[in-house]
Amino acid sequence: MTRRALIFFLALFILSGCAAREKKPISPPSTLKPFPSTAAPPVARPTPSIAVPPETPPAPIPKSVAPLVLLFDDQLPLFTDDMDDASLEAAVERSLQYFKRAAGGGPHRMDETMVTVRELGESLLALREILRRDEPAEIRQERIRETFDVYRSTGLDGRNAVLFTGYFEPILNGSLKKTARYKYPVYKAPADAVVVNLGKFREKQQGDQLVGRVKNGELVPYYSRSEIEDLAALAGRHLEIAWVDDRINLFFLHTQGSGKIKLPNGRLLQIGYAMKNGRSYQSVGRFLLDTGKIAQQDISYQAIKRYLREHPDDLSEILGHNESFIFFREVKEGPVGSLGEVLTAGRSIATDANLFPRGALAFIRTQKPILDREGNVVSWVPFSRFVVNQDAGGMIKGAGRVDLFCGTGDEAEMLAGSLKERGELYFLVKKRDRGR
User: Fold this and answer.
1) Which of 3, 264, 268, 277 could bond to 325 as cystine, CB 3.0-4.6 Å?
2) What average pLDDT does the structure give for the chain?
3) Which range of residues forms the domain containing residue 163?
4) Residue 200: alpha-carbon gap to chain centroid
């Protein structure tokens, strides 16, 4: 097939309207508990990245509701932080590095104000200066209120409700060579995967993509998870970065997007997201509910993993339900977020990049679980902290969704798997000088 013929086919395909991406509403699970608020209270938001499904669709958000609204002084929350200043400074530095590269980026709308990349960077510098003063909490609180304009997310329903979930960086056992134990491949991006940026053909589809491959002169969808894992569609092409010993953990590596592979000699191989196969994500939790394999009252991340381990003969059917497949790349350090910067545990969040400013300073208020050694929730406690918007996710869509990076390893996995709470999201921008 000639290049000109392929372009002609793509044009016809797009004009036919078949390339429109399906958009599905996301709603909070029915188990969400009320969130205690000390500010203006929320009234009354992928599916969590750990794949616990929602129960009912939300009411539609009025088109007139902006994702961020500027608050008056009497609406501001109490800016208390449950983590150390050092971790916040580390996260701030990562965003500053990003802003140096993105200096020419366009402004972002926040309520009725257009905020520039330079202003977002200056906001981070202003917070860093406040942190380094090491002043009493009361004085720090006043400085923050005097220094920043504060914008609150209008949330899932246009009334400030935000659903917080968690994600983590898993550590898998693996090898650079295939063995009887290490037999599940981690693939790098294949050369025959064709990425079509639809925005180049239709302005209203900016940001939309198709991923496919050319077969008999025709662009067709790329291989699904089942074709890759069960039918070995990519075998023999030398695309393996490594092999791991656990198919279930590998599946959840795909849902997290990055991780570490511990090799037999103890070395940790850091891998990050490279691309996906273009197939739509489908929740295995939702599938287990719909097929009656797990009851609604029992659904959780831990219950999903337990069911998969107890039913190995069903793995191909269940995992194959999610046709989405992730390809990885080796990176020097990580995990790396969508900004190309390393994430900071407890400080980096993922949000919808189409709605919220990338790399920006934010503040969250929600609840976190207290866990026992087995990962069971003992109690819940409210918390608040400054965070930085440094990542994105395929299921993190809308003004009412935040995914909090919980860290690396088993403890982070238990925390991320339990976090599914309602709360509040704010963005802070340094106030403009008069006459500016």
Assistant:
1) 277
2) 86
3) 68-167+342-406+417-430
4) 26
Residue 347 contacts residue 90 (beta carbons within 8 Å): yes
What CA–CA distances, in Å, run from 277 to 7, 43, 105, 110, 199? 20, 39, 28, 33, 19
**DSSP codes, 91-123:** HHHHHHHHHHHTTTPPPEEETTEEE-HHHHHHH
Q: Tokens standing for 195?
A: 């990425």
DSSP string, 235-283: TTSS-EEEEES-HHHHHHHHHH--EEEE-TTSPEEEEEEEEE-SPPP--
Pick from 250, 213, 261: which is nearest to 234 by CA?
213
Cβ pair 83, 57 in contact under 8 A: no
**Is 110:70 a contact under the CB 8 Å cutoff?**
yes
Mean pLDDT over 365-394 rounds to: 92
Query: pLDDT category, 233, cuts 50, 70, 90?
Result: very high
Report whether 419 contacts 406 (CB < 8 A): yes
Question: Does residue 275 belong to any structural domain of this protein?
Answer: no
Amino acid at site 80: T
* Cβ atoms 400, 157 nearer than 8 A: yes
CATH number of the domain to which 97 belongs: 2.40.40.10
Separation of alpha carbons 165 and 161, rounded Å: 13
Q: Cis peptide leading into 58, omega within 30 of 0?
A: no
Q: 376 in a domain, yes or no? A: yes
Q: What is the model's pLDDT at position 374?
A: 79
Whether 81 is in a domain gets the answer yes
Summarised one tens digit per residue, pLDDT across range 320-349 is 999 999 999 999 998 999 999 999 999 999
SS in 3 state form for 333-378? CCCECCCCCECCCCCEEECCCCCCCCCCEEEEEEEEEEECCCCCEE
Residue 197 lies in a domain: no
pLDDT digits (tens, 9 = 90+) for 267-293: 999 999 999 999 999 999 999 999 999
